[in-house]
């Protein structure tokens, strides 16, 4: 059980503070913030999510730049507390539509009401938006969604987290539309974060897909939903060791290493026809999380080269190959490459006619950055950079630069080939035909090419 | 409701409180609601709105749930500071607890339990009794938690009124949410009680296993954690339990998965069939790996747990090493943990892959990560004999990149590799020597010097290399100096030529005359005497074969590992410390406002932090390097009393013609002697083992000074110690470090202690019950007395004005007096010095008739001050001691301490 819960802004201001047990001294929020801000222990400069100061255990997660924190004195389950913090963030977001400092401040009474129902004496009661609705009386004040666009399209999927609390949907599940009636719709997002490590010779060393089927329902009356996945889907690699491609290669079937389901999901027919049945609770939630190490075709290949070019000079050539269909477009691509520490200057040369591309040499951390607004499938892009060094290099120049890492978003594309074949809503009447949005998106998690 | 809540934050005009007061008493409902919101807003930003108590409580009688909740929120916050006014709310609470609306009933019980005011607690009992049997499950589940709240305030009341029985009945409730809360409440009550309250029988087990399937995810965690205390009768029962729990591994909630893993691991200990165990291991692997796809925070917790699991059952993840490869964008705390696990899973089969990864990490940007990666390569070399050569090749490649910190780190691990495989890889020394002048970190320097000394005969210019270090000898840190000293002696013994001979003179001179480091000086004298008495003996000692070191990547000892595995999925498994090392849960009554208020005057606010330092210092994960044996008897840093130096026979004089006058030891530090420790376990009781011990305080740290004398016929080893709950919650800060004791010998140690770890309830007593065991004998129990003066802290000195003010501010009922008729003060100066040495600070003195009156101050943990007045006639028996303290119940202990101090 937890003792206190609080939310701090990036500057360390208390946005929400609730004490459930009165056993931790009042200054805990300040103690916590100072500790996290000036963390320097075990040679690390980033505080771990769980630590102990003067007998008080502090847990924290970062969500959209806010710190969600819990304290306790007891030997509790750390995963329950960390999960709880993520869930509270999600519940608040479900209620107020969009999660940020402003929306929490504007809705503080509602947030306190939610906190009192979600946690009693430090024990988690429920974090289901659906269940909470019966006990919550405050109306949310939805803040102007238009101001959100400043986050940009990459802010949509929050950095660092896997189960993104935010998809494109920024509506409150309880607030009514300005027009009055709610729109009947349901969103199903298949979000895949892919991690690939290429060796210096271009072979795939490791590859992995972390996927989530995320759902957010605005359907009235909570009808039952059937979600059908690929028929040839199978789970578990039947005892073969990880990354043993032979067993699965070429068969075309989707083989997941492991998956888990939301508690509302019934799997009665899953073995037979790969359908999931569920009555979606209100709010956003992951229907299914899955993990796959079966071989897949990485959307990008990266070719990086660094060569000496005379005294105090070197040349970098970066090539990107977009190996996905030409009707698909990746956007917000960013390629980064650490350069040798004694790099003084870098001058760039893009291909003639390149548009929507930026290049930069970050002096402070000696890093090359190449930004591309979009890349159409099948295309090939090149960047050349000439480096000037402040001192002669000794040893191996390739060892002192790289690896190249990249981030990207590819809408309507997924590497695993996992698909939602159909989405059936138990019909109430013939005319009932709510909007159904099934969307796919692939994101880079750790996408790295060694040189 | 209209507008934005944040507007409530913006009123900062002068007459805010009167304005709010007016609005709270408005005849319009909406206005009242808005006003309460403003009050809450002010409260959350830390403004004091307690003066509005009556006005807010007046708004409580409403059917509007939104408003009622706001008022309750206010009440919880301020009831403690306004206990008399809080009574005003009682009637409404009692009425609400019988409201037809279940939400209002639940709300009333929930809120009453949060108001920690004794007077209210009495009124809570009847409503609670009703609500525990309410028809509505929402009310029952709220009431279940309320029992835990009440137990925290008044445990006796809960037991007297039979609430525990009602709570146990709820385990059979038909609503899973109620069951889950009852289990959670009972588990917590059990944790804070010494009596068996919530016993896990096979009957309870089957009920809970059934409820498990229907519970919410959080309820599942409560139940799984409670079930993990169940001890299955036999393998078959264990298998049955595991079968029921295994489906939980598929849950999307990581907490459920980890708690299920814990439960399964525990039952596996009982399962004998290897097939079943193998199958379970196979089932657990994918969910454990999936935890690593969660948020980085969860990954961290999972990794710390996996670290423990693979130490006990390496097969579970033996084939999954690739999932522990670091991702480019992993936070540093995740990367570090992954490295640890990679080392643990490294085997002859996968070492090539692993080395390739480590090598890649060693060229990344983050310096700390790079260092750890280099060390990881070294640890693999030590762990896997057949791969050692490949590891060394990688290290040499890294050294050639010539990144300074990589080189230094590599040299440190290569030293360990040399110790693991002596006389195997000396061929690489030449490469190492190339980097000699770039070394600027003490540890790397010390390692390099060690290598040169150890292999002096194989390095042609070893004397030149060492000489280059000697120039800066006085400026080097202590452990570099120690290594230089030893390396030079080795060199001299191996190559007794002119150069080394001169060097050794310089070193010995530096290490004896020029230094004030006792360790260095002692070691230098020992070498000196050895060399001068019998150089051959010196060779046997200094050049003796060293014990081969082993792999330290599984460094938890098996009993600690057992304990930690039993605590999987708790904080203990994240810190890798047993719960008692960091859980300092105090009963809330200890934080009563009286104490806090008092503290604001006397600097109380600082001292809890100061005290807890020792406990919290260990909060972060333990260091992974070896050589962290604190306070072992052999390396006591404490200043030792100086024994008069006996005339030293001129044994050293003939050594290489040094001037004799330079080598007469001035003040040879002796082993800490002091007065003998009191014997607590006489040899007659201890079957030949005699234990003497006493609490002492040094530099603000409390130690338990122990002396073990072995009068048995066999060597004794494996000493462990444990302390029963006691008033000050004294507990060992680490394991007892006692070497094997041969028959007829003895060993002493200073065990660092922490306070407020396992506190006993009830009035303060000085009793300290100790249990000591070893591998050869039964467990020995003995009693010791805690003398309060070891707790006197260094910050207990009060200024005169402050003293007077504090004295006056304390009520007369807090003044307690005691006479010590038998005690004489002969020498005032000496007595004051002695008292000051124990942190009892002299403030002032005055004459009263023929008597001398002395004033002192002292402070014990939690910032509790003692103001002391001693009245006596010098050289005449009889001392009167009067004290004033906010904690009069500690007075008897205090008098005991003063009596001991004055008697000395």
UniProtKB/TrEMBL annotation, chain A:
InterPro entries: Adaptor_comp_med_subunit, AP2_Mu_C_sf, Clathrin_mu, Longin-like_dom_sf, MHD. The keyword Membrane applies. It is found in: Endomembrane system. The keyword Glycoprotein does not apply. Residues 183-450 form the MHD domain. One of its GO terms (biological process) is vesicle-mediated transport. Keywords: Membrane, Protein transport, Transport. One of its GO terms (cellular component) is endomembrane system. Belongs to the adaptor complexes medium subunit family. This is MHD domain-containing protein. It comes from Rubus argutus (Southern blackberry). The lineage of its organism: Eukaryota, Viridiplantae, Streptophyta, Embryophyta, Tracheophyta.
Automatic annotation (TrEMBL), chain B:
It is a peripheral membrane protein. One of its GO terms (biological process) is vesicle-mediated transport. This is Beta-adaptin-like protein. It comes from the Eukaryota. Subunit of clathrin-associated adaptor protein complex that plays a role in protein sorting in the late-Golgi/trans-Golgi network (TGN) and/or endosomes. The AP complexes mediate both the recruitment of clathrin to membranes and the recognition of sorting signals within the cytosolic tails of transmembrane cargo molecules. Its main location: membrane. SMART domains: Alpha_adaptinC2, B2-adapt-app_C. Residues 607-637 have a biased composition (Low complexity). It is found in: Cytoplasmic vesicle, Clathrin-coated vesicle membrane; Golgi apparatus, trans-Golgi network. The keyword Protein transport applies. Belongs to the adaptor complexes large subunit family. GO terms for cellular component: clathrin adaptor complex; clathrin-coated vesicle membrane; Golgi apparatus. Residues 669-783 form the Clathrin adaptor alpha/beta/gamma-adaptin appendage Ig-like subdomain domain. InterPro entries: AP_beta (IPR026739), AP_complex_bsu_1_2_4 (IPR016342), ARM-like (IPR011989), ARM-type_fold (IPR016024), B-adaptin_app_sub_C (IPR015151), Clathrin/coatomer_adapt-like_N (IPR002553), Clathrin_a/b/g-adaptin_app_Ig (IPR008152), Clathrin_app_Ig-like_sf (IPR013041). It comes from Rubus argutus. Keywords: Cytoplasmic vesicle, Golgi apparatus, Membrane, Protein transport, Transport. Residues 792-903 form the Beta-adaptin appendage C-terminal subdomain domain. One of its GO terms (molecular function) is clathrin binding. Adaptor protein complexes are heterotetramers composed of two large adaptins (beta-type subunit and alpha-type or delta-type or epsilon-type or gamma-type subunit), a medium adaptin (mu-type subunit) and a small adaptin (sigma-type subunit). Residues 586-646 are annotated as: Disordered. The keyword Metal-binding does not apply.
């Amino acid at each position: 059980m937890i003792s206190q819960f609080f939310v701090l802004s990036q500057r360390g201001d208390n946005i929400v503070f609730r004490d459930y047990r009165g056993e931790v001294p009042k200054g805990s929020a300040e103690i916590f913030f100072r500790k996290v801000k000036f963390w320097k222990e075990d040679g690390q400069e980033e505080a771990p999510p769980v630590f102990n100061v003067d007998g008080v255990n502090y847990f924290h997660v970062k969500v959209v730049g806010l710190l969600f924190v819990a304290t306790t004195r007891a030997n509790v389950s750390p995963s329950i507390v960390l999960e709880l913090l993520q869930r509270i963030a999600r519940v608040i977001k479900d209620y107020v539509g969009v999660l940020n400092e402003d929306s929490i401040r504007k809705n503080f009474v509602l947030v306190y009401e939610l906190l009192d129902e979600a946690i009693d004496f430090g024990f988690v009661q429920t974090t289901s938006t659906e269940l909470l609705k019966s006990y919550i009386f405050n109306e949310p004040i939805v803040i102007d969604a238009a101001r959100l666009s400043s986050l940009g399209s990459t802010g949509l999927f929050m950095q660092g987290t896997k189960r993104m609390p935010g998809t494109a949907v920024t509506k409150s599940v309880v607030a009514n539309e300005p027009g009055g009636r709610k729109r009947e719709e349901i969103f199903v997002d298949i979000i895949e974060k892919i991690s690939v490590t290429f060796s210096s010779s271009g072979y795939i060393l490791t590859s992995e897909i972390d996927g989530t089927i995320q759902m957010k329902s605005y359907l009235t009356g909570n009808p039952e939903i059937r979600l059908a996945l690929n028929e040839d889907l199978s789970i578990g690699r039947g005892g073969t060791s990880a990354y043993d491609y032979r067993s699965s290669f070429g068969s075309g079937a989707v083989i997941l290493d492991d998956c888990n389901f939301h508690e509302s999901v019934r799997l009665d027919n899953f073995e037979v026809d790969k359908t999931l049945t569920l009555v979606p609770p209100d709010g956003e939630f992951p229907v299914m999380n899955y993990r796959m190490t079966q071989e897949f075709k990485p959307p990008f290949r990266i070719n990086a080269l660094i060569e000496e070019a005379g005294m105090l000079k070197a040349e970098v050539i970066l090539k990107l190959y977009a190996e996905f269909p030409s009707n698909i477009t990746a956007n917000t691509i960013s390629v980064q490459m650490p350069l040798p520490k004694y790099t003084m200057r870098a001058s760039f040369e893009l291909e003639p006619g390149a548009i929507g591309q930026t290049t930069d040499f970050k002096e402070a951390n000696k890093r090359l950055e190449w930004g591309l607004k979009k890349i159409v499938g099948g295309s090939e892009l090149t960047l050349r950079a000439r480096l000037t060094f402040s001192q002669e290099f000794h040893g191996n120049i390739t060892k002192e630069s790289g690896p190249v890492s990249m981030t990207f978003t590819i809408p309507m594309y997924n590497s695993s080939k996992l698909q939602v074949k159909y989405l059936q809503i138990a019909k109430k009447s013939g005319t009932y035909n709510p909007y159904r949005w099934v969307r796919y998106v692939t994101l880079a998690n750790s996408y790295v090419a060694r040189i | 409701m209209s507008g934005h809540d944040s507007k409530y934050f913006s009123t900062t005009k002068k007459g805010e409180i009167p304005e709010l007061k007016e609005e709270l008493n408005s005849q319009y409902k909406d206005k009242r609601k808005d006003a309460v919101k403003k009050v809450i807003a002010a409260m959350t930003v830390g403004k004091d709105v307690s003066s509005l108590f009556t006005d807010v409580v007046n708004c409580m009688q409403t059917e509007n749930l939104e408003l009622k909740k706001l008022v309750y929120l206010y009440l919880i916050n301020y009831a403690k500071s306004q206990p008399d006014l809080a009574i005003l709310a009682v009637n409404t609470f009692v009425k609400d607890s019988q409201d037809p609306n279940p939400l209002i009933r639940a709300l009333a019980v929930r809120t009453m339990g949060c108001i920690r005011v004794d007077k209210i607690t009495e009124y809570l009992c009847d409503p609670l009794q009703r609500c525990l049997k309410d028809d509505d499950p929402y009310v029952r589940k709220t009431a279940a938690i309320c029992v835990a709240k009440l137990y925290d305030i008044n445990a006796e009341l809960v037991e007297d009124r039979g609430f525990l029985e009602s709570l146990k009945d709820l385990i059979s409730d038909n609503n899973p949410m109620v069951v889950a809360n009852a289990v959670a409440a009972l588990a917590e009550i059990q944790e804070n009680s010494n009596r068996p309250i919530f016993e896990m029988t096979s009957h309870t087990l089957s009920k809970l296993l059934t409820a498990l399937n229907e519970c919410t995810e959080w309820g599942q965690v409560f139940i799984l954690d409670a079930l993990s205390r169940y001890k299955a009768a036999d393998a078959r029962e264990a298998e049955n339990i595991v079968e029921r729990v295994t489906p939980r591994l598929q849950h999307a909630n990581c907490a459920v998965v980890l708690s299920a893993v814990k439960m399964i691991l525990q039952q596996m200990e009982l399962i004998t069939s290897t097939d079943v165990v193998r199958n379970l291991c196979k089932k657990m692997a994918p969910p454990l790996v999936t935890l690593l796809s969660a948020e980085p925070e969860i990954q961290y917790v999972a990794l710390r747990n996996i670290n423990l699991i693979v130490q006990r059952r390496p097969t579970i993840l033996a084939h999954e090493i690739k999932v522990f490869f670091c991702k480019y964008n992993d936070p540093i705390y995740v990367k570090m943990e992954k490295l640890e696990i990679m080392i643990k899973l490294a085997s002859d089969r996968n070492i090539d892959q692993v080395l390739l990864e480590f090598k890649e990490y060693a060229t990344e940007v983050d310096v700390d990560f790079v260092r750890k990666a280099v060390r990881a390569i070294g640890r693999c070399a030590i762990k896997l004999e057949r791969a050692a050569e490949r590891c060394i090749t990688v290290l040499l490649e890294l050294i050639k990149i010539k990144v300074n910190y990589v080189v230094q780190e590599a040299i440190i691990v290569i030293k360990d590799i040399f110790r693991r495989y002596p006389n195997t890889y000396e061929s690489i020394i030449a490469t190492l020597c190339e980097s000699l002048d770039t070394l600027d970190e003490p540890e790397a320097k010390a390692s390099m010097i060690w290598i040169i000394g150890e292999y002096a005969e194989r390095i042609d210019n070893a004397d030149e290399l060492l000489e280059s270090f000697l120039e800066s000898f006085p400026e080097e840190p202590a452990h570099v100096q120690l290594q230089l000293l030893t390396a030079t002696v080795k060199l001299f013994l191996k190559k007794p030529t002119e150069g080394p001979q001169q060097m050794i003179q310089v070193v010995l001179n530096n290490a004896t005359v020029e230094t004030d480091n006792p360790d260095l000086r002692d070691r230098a004298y020992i070498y000196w005497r050895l060399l001068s008495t019998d150089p051959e003996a010196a060779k046997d000692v200094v050049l003796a074969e060293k014990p081969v070191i082993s792999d330290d990547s599984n460094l938890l000892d098996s009993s600690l590992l057992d304990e930690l595995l039993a605590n999987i999925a708790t904080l203990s498994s994240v810190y890798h410390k047993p719960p008692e090392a960091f859980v300092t849960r105090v009963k809330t009554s200890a934080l009563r406002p009286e104490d806090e208020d008092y503290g604001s005057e006397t600097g109380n606010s600082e001292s809890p932090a100061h005290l807890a330092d020792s406990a919290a210092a260990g909060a972060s994960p333990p260091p992974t390097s070896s050589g962290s044996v604190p306070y072992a008897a052999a390396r006591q840093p404490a200043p030792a009393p100086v024994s008069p130096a006996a005339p030293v026979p001129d044994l050293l004089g003939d050594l290489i013609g040094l001037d004799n006058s330079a080598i007469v030891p001035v003040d040879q530090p002796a082993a800490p002697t002091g007065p003998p420790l009191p014997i607590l376990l006489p040899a007659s009781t201890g079957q030949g083992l005699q234990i003497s011990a006493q609490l002492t305080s040094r530099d603000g740290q409390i130690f338990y000074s122990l002396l073990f004398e072995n009068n048995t016929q066999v060597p004794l080893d494996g000493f462990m110690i444990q302390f029963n709950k006691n008033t000050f919650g004294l507990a060992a800060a680490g394991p007892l470090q006692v070497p094997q004791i041969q028959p007829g010998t003895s060993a002493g140690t200073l065990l660092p202690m922490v306070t407020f770890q396992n506190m006993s309830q009830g009035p303060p007593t000085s009793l300290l019950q100790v249990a000591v065991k070893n591998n050869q004998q039964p467990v020995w129990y003995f009693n010791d007395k805690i003398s309060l003066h070891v707790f006197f802290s260094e910050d207990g000195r009060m200024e005169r004005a402050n003293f007077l003010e504090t004295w006056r501010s304390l009520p007369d009922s807090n003044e307690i007096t005691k006479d010590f008729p038998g005690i004489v003060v002969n020498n005032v100066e000496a007595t004051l010095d002695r008292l000051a040495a124990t942190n009892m600070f002299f403030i002032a003195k005055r004459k009263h008739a023929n008597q001398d009156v002395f004033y002192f101050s002292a402070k014990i943990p939690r910032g509790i001050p003692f103001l002391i007045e001693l009245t006596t006639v010098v050289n005449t028996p009889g001392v009167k001691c009067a004290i004033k303290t906010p904690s009069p119940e500690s007075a008897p202990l205090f008098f005991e301490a003063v009596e001991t101090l004055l008697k000395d």
